[in-house]
Design a protein that fits this description.
Layout lengths: L4 H12 L5 E5 L27 E5 L2 E2 L13 E5 L2 E2 L1 H9 L6 E8 L3 E5 L5 E7 L4 E6 L5 E5 L1 E7 L6 E11 L1 E3 L9 E9 L1 H10 L5 E5 L1
């Protein structure tokens, strides 16, 4: 049964009074085409639940920035099958500064993705399209990082990476800059249609102590 944006607003307001901590929301983003210009973004109403600890979204639209106040208790965010615009994605992540677990899976439309999360420990990214995404990530506590669909990858600052997986099923991995040695790395996987040799060499030179290496084309 379809649910309209105003029904969603009422639903979230009711559950907020019960200190909602976990929310899973499946939507048909095609339905947003019927919304008028005066209708708020459907995701705006998630801000009515400041006690959220985990949030999972399927099929939502991130073409406009959701009006979220900081969700300071949110530690897990999973978004699956979504069309995004870079500014909206950046704004959403900025409103979740305490994230420890982040999964963006089957995301379409991302071009330049900038992630700056000081408490992030696990990050899984899967960008759908021609594999030409630029990615910058700053996460000093990052231990597990899986990325698919980026051509340029930069992991900034200090980190504690133990598992790293880089893949590009549609395009070319042109550059990987992980800013220093991967001294704690235990598992490394490199997959994809095509890699620049400089990208391969840079990763391998930084991961000389890795215990498990996977390289599949």
């Amino acid at each position: 049964m379809p649910i309209f944006w105003y029904e969603l607003a009422n639903l979230v307001r009711v559950t907020t009074s019960r200190t909602l901590k976990h929310l899973e929301l499946r939507m048909d983003n095609l339905g947003e085409k019927s919304l008028g210009p005066s209708c708020p973004c459907t995701l705006d109403y998630i801000a009515c639940s400041p006690c959220l600890e985990s949030l999972k979204l399927w099929g939502v639209s991130l073409k406009q920035l959701p009006a979220w106040t900081p969700l300071l208790r949110l530690h897990t965010l999973e978004v699956v099958g979504v069309r995004v615009q870079d500014t909206a994605l950046f704004g959403m992540l900025r409103a979740c500064p305490m994230l420890k677990n982040l999964a963006l899976l089957g995301c379409d439309g991302a071009k330049i993705v900038d992630i700056d999360l000081q408490y992030l420990e696990q990050c899984r990214l899967d960008f759908y399209g021609i594999g030409d995404c630029f990615l910058n990530i700053t996460a000093p506590k990052l231990k597990l990082f899986e990325i698919q669909g980026a051509a340029w990858i930069r992991i900034r600052g200090n980190h504690s990476l133990r598992q790293l997986s880089i893949a590009n099923n549609a395009g070319k991995v042109n550059k990987v800059d992980q800013c220093g040695r991967l001294s704690d790395l235990e598992s490394l996987s490199m997959r994809g249609v095509q890699w620049c040799w400089d990208a391969i060499d840079n990763v391998l030179q930084s991961a000389t102590d890795v215990k498990n290496l996977g390289d599949e084309n």
